[in-house]
Amino acid sequence: MEALRADMFDEICPSTLLPFRIGPDKWSALVIKCLEDGPRRFSELRVPLARVTPKVLTQSLRALERDGFIRRTEETTPVRRVTYELTDLGRGLLQQVYLLCDWSSEHWDELLDARES
């Protein structure tokens, strides 16, 4: 599996401008997008989500797990390892995430203008 890129998301993320959220917070859609290709460790998620504090990322992951969108798996042998992956429910959100990304790209200037006025 290919590593997540640090520049996966724009510095100015449209998720902060959207009037709606997927999941419990503005970072949930980005976490779901990061898990699209398969299970990831916390440290892997931190690469593209460097603007998110570890505490907030942990809260997002716990809330997404609680809501049934992701699964947390802990392995203890040979070393402790925790991974996060999308459930079928979470995978079902990917299409909506893509639709929202397309919509926000299409209306980016309007969203910025509205926030500035």
Automatic annotation (TrEMBL):
In terms of InterPro entries, this protein maps to:
HTH_HxlR, WH-like_DNA-bd_sf, WH_DNA-bd_sf
Q: Where is the HTH hxlR-type domain?
A: 13-112
Against Pfam families, the record matches this protein to:
HxlR
Tell whether DNA-binding is among the UniProt keywords: yes
State whether keyword Kinase applies.
Answer: no
Residue ranges of coiled coil: none
Organism this protein belongs to:
Kribbella yunnanensis
Q: What is this protein called?
A: HTH hxlR-type domain-containing protein
State the UniProt keywords alphabetically.
DNA-binding, Transcription, Transcription regulation
**Gene3D superfamilies, per this entry?**
Winged helix-like DNA-binding domain superfamily/Winged helix DNA-binding domain (1.10.10.10)
